[in-house]
Each structure stands twice: as structure tokens, then as C-alpha cells.
Amino acid sequence: MSAHSLPESTHLWHGLEVEKALEMLDSDANSGLTSQEVEQRRQKYGLNELEENGGRSPWQILLDQFTNIMLLMLIAVALISGFLDLLALTGGTLKPGEVPFKDTIAIMAIVILNGILGYVQESRAEKALAALKKLSSPSVRVLRDGKLGDVAAKELVPGDVMLLEAGVQIAADGRLIEQSNLQVRESALTGEAEAVNKQAILTLPEDAPLGDRLNSVFQGTEVLQGRAKVLVTDTGMRTELGKIAAMLQSVDGEPTPLQQRMTQLGNVLVSGSLILVAIVVGGGLIHDLTKGIGWKNLQELVEVSLSMAVAVVPEGLPAVITVTLALGTQRMVKHHALIRKLPAVETLGSVTTICSDKTGTLTQNKMVVQSVYTNNSTFRVTGEGYTPIGDFQLNGEKASLDECPEISALLVSCAVCNDAVLQQQQGVWAILGDPTEGALVTLAGKAGIEQDQWSSKLPRVAEFPFSSERKRMSVICQLEAVATGDTSLTAIDPAIAGFVESEQYLMFTKGSPELTLERCTKIHLGNHSIPISDEHRSQILVANDQMAGKGLRVLGFAYKPLAEVPPDGSEDTSEVDLVWLGLVGMLDAPRPEVRAAVQECRHAGIRPIMITGDHQLTAQAIAIDLGIAQEGDRVLTGKELQLLSDQELETQVDLVSIYARVSPEHKLRIVQALQRRGRFVAMTGDGVNDAPALKQADIGIAMGITGTDVSKEASDMILLDDNFATIVAATKEGRVVYTNIRRFIKYILGSNIGEVLTIAAAPLLGLGGVPLSPLQILWMNLVTDGLPALALAVEPPEPDVMQRPPFSPRESIFARGLGSYMIRIGIVFAVITIILMEWAYHHSHAAGYQGHEDTWKTMVFTSLCLAQMGHAIAIRSNNRLTIEMNPFSNPFVLGSVIVTTILQLMLIYVPPLQSFFGTHALSLQELAICIGFSALMFVWIEGEKIFFRFMGKKSV
Ligand code: ATP
């Protein structure tokens, strides 16, 4: 059957035998499709993608913009203001030249603009997150043109042969061709949390419900255990998941802690301003009534309160926050840290403890075997990387392996008990698969033992796959070739000679040396296996400790002849009575940049902790080398941890920096214990069983290269380069983002408080009229506050950002002086402006004065705006004086100050703008007075810095 006559609609694949399904899809279980067929099918079926329709609908996002209490207050102000204008219009009391409903229109325009802006930003953020998710979308191992390779999940086509292993999220629907111990979690599809055991050989009734289709796998489900070869039957929207696309996981749109705090802040501001309005209006009325003035000033009081209500709302703030977070994620991607959940950007800055895996994160995960130990001899192995060229040396001399039957048997085991493939890519030797296993194939290759050759001589018939809990794996191979007397098997022939006649199979096991040795009852010496003595055991363990003490990763090897293939799931009872072969020690050098990153952590008050499945001595040697621990520091092993109660563990977690031979479930206990001690924990993980610990951690970090899809799905952040130093860089970015957010909150809200107090003061001082119209206030909040605030959002890190302890993520938004700063600066702002207002008012009304009598209002408006410019420049640093800083290190602040000042001057001097904003041209002298008064703001803040420096206080 050719590709174009492939079945159109989903067949009931589970009702077919494997061969039939392969035939129908015109595919081959051993070589897969050809590239040409893949191309044809892609044309026909399209990409393997789902049309996402999760998340909030656009209408929902838009509606959400108007449910904010501050916007509701603005709408109320617009309506009341419109009502007043209507009264004035019908009553004929409108001032000459005044445009009716101007404020109402402006406020409503701002409300709508804010809504649209919020909508655009939120849907952008959702799209960006969706794109980030796609970036982290998994690749799939497929067999094409007879070769194994990794392709993006979207490239799969029906007929492809894909390989699955533990931790993979299945990328398409398929019919099993073969499997080993395959367990799949199908909860995404069936809601059933229990793992399902799958079997290729079954043929099922056509009406079998989804949950019972045990010979098929489905897109979106997860492999928990085992391995499988699968024929892809359906892709894209034709998969079972595609059919119920509405069930797709929606993009996480949860508000960040900061957004939640901003909502709270909004509530405080609104209620605070309502109280203030009540005081001003109530106080004013009582004053008027007791003085016998009556209700004459009521309208003015209402106008004052409307202006105050507008003044208190920081209209520009939500936009600045979203932009800052979005820019933060972009900068982090540049540092190879992919944020999956927005809250992670700001919470990263609060991390106090980083729990990191060793292999690949602290080390390079480029394994090279250095030593082989067997029959009491330690061989040194030369050679570099994965190139299978090198020598075996014994006591400094090149050794002849023919004279050493034990090592040959061990090397065959290295080649056969292995899932990695060694390939030459553009002349360079590289591995496909786990580097630990790659190093073993390379090792065997150095002795001329080629994986391909041996795999066909000893075909694999079953296996017990590796898992981090078991810390070992076994493969069961058929011995028919040996039985027929294939002489090329001399290397292991003697080793198995005694079993050949009666036994058909050979099981090779490799794993953590201690655990493997525990399961051995014999040892392979010379050409025989003899019972293993206690002396043998202690010699092996001493050799293991010596290798591990040098920081080598050590694996133990054993074998066992078998009469029949053990059933799936019988690993515990089958992997016993093994025959010990030897040890292999490989070097995994630390990443060069990690030492400096660990130092940086220490200065920043962040404690790095190593949590590894490796041997305690290996872990210790590397941790000491990297500066994570010191000589003599306690190492806690998984076994010891198991014996500790949760309370006991809690007393240990602050003391221990190395956890060795741990299993994924221990990671969860360690995170929980640290959290109970009040630590804010970032935790790395890559395996399928790391997911609970990643979810529990305050920041769950998955590995981009070696991480399983399941761990990525559970994480907040993905390390694209698997590098510890990237976590530290992201933490630094997190701190910068949070510091900048606090900076512009101080900047914006300080000015809002100043505005409110100034407006409230006007009637109390008995000045006729409201100094600032709602329109002018909106201008200040959006433009004169908004533009510099955006520039402050990209302020580069202060030099000491990683020299101070982390801040608690649970601290109030007003903590560390933010609240007192806002109030203090708000008052200073108001005092300066009120003095100016008082002077300008009397100056404008002075007899004989030529200017407009309302000029004082323009002067108040101008000086408030200009004062904010000085504020923006001074607030760039909390402690450094402006003259100590490079003005061009953040050119945006300088630029925004210049642009905003020009805009402000245009508002005063350009006639159409004058009439719209209700301003009057100021004389040069008046402008100079405004500049003089507003400069006081800058002087005050710089003075504060000098004062705090003098007092030895550092503000952060
Ligand atoms: P980390 O958690 O720091 O990444 P790790 O990679 O050493 O540590 P695991 O991969 O869980 O952790 O490995 C734990 C132990 O299992 C190793 O120390 C080794 O003894 C054994 N091991 C690792 N890989 C294999 C493998 N492919 N086959 C058999 N045993 C293995």
C-alpha cells in the first residue's frame, strides 16, 4: 500500500495485530519510514499539532480588565463629573470657553484605553507563555531510514516508529510493536490516576473503551516506567486527545503574588481616598455651615473629591508591572532560563536555598571511563571523549586483555547492557542516549568489542529498565549463538561454558556497586564463577571507595545465566544470585563556571545543596571541589534519611549540604523539611519521579536537555542548558526585577500621595477652586509618572544585588521602608507644592498683576510634574548619589525625563493644548519659580541618601 492510499480516518488499531497495523500503515518495525515517505505523509496529514483552545476567551480577558476596583472608581468619577456638567449646561452656569463633558470623556477614554492596554498585554502574556511552552515542547526518538534519531514532536507522521522510555510524554497515538515493563499514566485522557500496564501482543475487541486499550498508547499520556517501540497511528487533531481538545491544559494565567498584592494595594488606596474625601467634604461642609456660608461651596467640594479620587488611582502602574515581568522573562531566556509560570520571575529573587542535582547540572555530564577494576586489578583507561580509541594500562604498562578473561566479560557486559548508541556525526564521535551508558560503549569499543556486533550475537529478549529508585538495570539476552558454537564468542565463552548446555539466556546487570554487590553470591574469576567470600566483598568495596573518593562515578557489573526469560515485573526476585564481574569508574568533570556561581550564591545569602543519586564519596569529592561543602562536612545518604522522622530531618536540613544515594521521593521530604524551616527552595529535577518534588518546591526547575517531559510539565522554569550557573543568573534577574518593581511603585505612589494631599489642602487653606482638574491628574499619572516609571523598570542591577540576603516573598509590599518612603515623600511633595500653591495663589490674585488669575493652578500642575522628573533621576539608586552614577547606564530614564518635560512645556505653551488641559502660559519668572520649587524634591531625596549613609543605614 502506498502512502497516498493510507487509511483516511482513525482505524480501530487496537483490534489489529501488529503486523496488520504495520502493513496498513506501510511501515517497517525495524527501519521505520523513509525520509521521502515522511515528507509525503506530512503533506497529507500536516503537522502533529493540536489547535489549542484552552485558556480564557478574549472576551473574558477583556471583561476582567474592568472588574478592577480602581477602574470602577474612575468610572464612577466620570459619571458624577458628567452629571455635574449636565447640570451646569442645563442651568446655564457653564464657564465661558469651557468644553462640557471634557473630563468625563477623558476619564472614560482612559478607562477604555486602560482596558484595551490591559487586554493586549494579558493576551500577549498568555500568547508568550504558550510560545514558551511550545519552545519546551518535547522531542521524540524515532526510527527512520533504519536509523535512530530525535525529531520535534510536531514532525511525527502516521507510520513513524517511535521509541518510548520512562518520563516521556507521548506525542501521538500509537499501536505498541513491542514493550518492556511499560507503565503509562493516562489520567490526562481517562482521568484514571492508576498506572496502566501495556502489552503489545494483545489484540482487543473493537469496542474496547479507551481505558482498556492495553496495546495502544495515546497522545498526552506519560510513560512512568519501562520502554516500548510504537507504531504511530494518529497524529494532530486525529488523536484521542485531539478529539477532546477542549480538555487541553490551559495556559497558566494565575496572577503573580505581586499582582495579588497590587489588588490589595488598590483596595487600600480606594478606601483610604474615600475616607479622605469624606473628611474633606464633611469637614468643609461643617466648617461652612457653622460659619453660616451654607451649601455654597458644595459643588467645589464635590469637584475636589472627584479630583482626589482620580489622583489616588495609579493608572499607569498595572501596565508597567506587566511590561517589567515580560522583559524579565525575555532577559532570562537570554540566560538560558525558560520561565513557564510568570510568578517565577519575581519569586526567583527570594530563593534562599538551591537544591541541585549533581550529574549534568553541577558537572558536565560528559563521561569518560578512567578506571576498570576486576579480579583485584585496577586498569587505567586512556583516551578522550566518546572516541573509542584508547589503551588499558596496568601498573603503567599497556595491558593485553586477552590474558585477562574477567575484563573481557565485563566489557561485553558494558556493550550489551546498554541503551545508548555511539555514532560518528561529521567525523566526531557522539552518543545518542545517556552519557553514562555512552561512556561504557566507548570503553568497550576501546577494547574492540563493538556494540552492534554483540547485540546481534546476544539479542536482547527482555529487560528490567533503569530507574533512579532501583539504581540498576538488567537485560536478558538469548544465548542461541553460543549454543551453536560461535567461536567468536571466546571472550565470554569460558565464562558461560558451564551453563551453555542447560541454560538458554544470560542476564547482564549493572548499577550502583553496593546494591549490585549485595545481590551477588558468586564472583567471576579466571574462567569460572566461584562463591564470593567476605574478603572479596571488602576488597571490592575498598576499590569502589577509592574510585569514588576521586570523584569518579562508579558502576558495578554482574551477570546471571537463566533457563527462561523472567516475567515482566519480577526484577526483585530475578536480580538475585548474580555473578560479580567488576567495577567501572568514570570521570564527569565539574562545569567550570559552577565554582564562581557557588561563590556568588554564598555572597547572596543563598545556600547551594547537592542532592544526588550517586555515591557519597563521589558526591563529597565534587561538592568540596565546587565549594558547596568543606572537608569533614556531613553527608546524609538516602538510607540514613529513610531512618529519620520528619522532625529529625528538619533539625538536619540546615546543616547538611550533600545528600547522596537518594531516591526521588527523598527529594520531596528534603524540600518539605526546608520549607518548614522557612526556607524558600528552588529544586532541580529531571526524572519522572522528580515531579512531586518540583511541584512542592517554591521554584521547580527542570532540565531542558536531559529532563523528561513529565518533569518539565511540573516545573516553573526550565534550564535550557541544564547548568547550575543559569539558576544563579536567573535568581539575580529575579532580584533585579523585584527591586525595579519596588522602585517604580515608590516613584508612582509617592507622587499620588503628594497629589491627593495638595488637592485636599486647597479648600482647607481657603483657596477658591480645585488646583488640579481630573484631566491634568490623568496626564500626570499616565504620562509624567508612567513614562519615567517604564524607564525605571529597565534599571540595570545595582552592584550589590548579589551581595545581600534574599527578601522574603511573603513580606508585605510596604516592607523594608517602602510604605514609609511613600508617605514621607508624598508629604514632602505636598509640602513643597502647597507652599508654592499658597504663594502662587496670592501672587496671581495680587492687585495689578497682569497674569491670569488661574495661573496658580498651572504653576501647581507644572511644579508637580517637574518635581517627578527630579524624583525619577534620584530614585535610580537607593543609596548612591546621582553624581556617583553614570547617567547613561540607563539612558531611558534620561530620555523619558527630557521627553516628558518637553511634553509638559507644550501643554503650557501650545494654545490648543492649553485650552484642552485648562492651562495658561507661564511667564519665564513663574516657570523659573516652578523649576526652583520642584528641584527641592531632588535635593531632598539626595539629602536623605547622605543622611542615611551618615547614619550607617543602607536602604534596599
Ligand atoms: P543526580 O541526581 O545528581 O543527577 P545521578 O545521575 O548519579 O545523580 P541517578 O541517575 O539516579 O543519579 O543514578 C543513581 C545511580 O544509579 C548512579 O550513581 C549509578 O550507580 C546508577 N546508574 C546511573 N545510571 C545508570 C545506568 N544507566 N545503568 C545502571 N545504573 C546506573
UniProtKB/TrEMBL annotation:
Positions of the Cation-transporting P-type ATPase N-terminal domain: 12-86
In this record, what's one Pfam family? Cation_ATPase_N
- Intracellular or extracellular location(s): Membrane
Instruction: Please report the record's description of how this protein sits within the membrane.
Output: Multi-pass membrane protein
What Gene Ontology terms describe where this protein resides (cellular component)?
Answer: plasma membrane
Molecular function per GO: ATP binding; ATP hydrolysis activity; metal ion binding; P-type calcium transporter activity
Protein's UniProt name: HAD superfamily ATPase
Source species: Dolichospermum compactum NIES-806
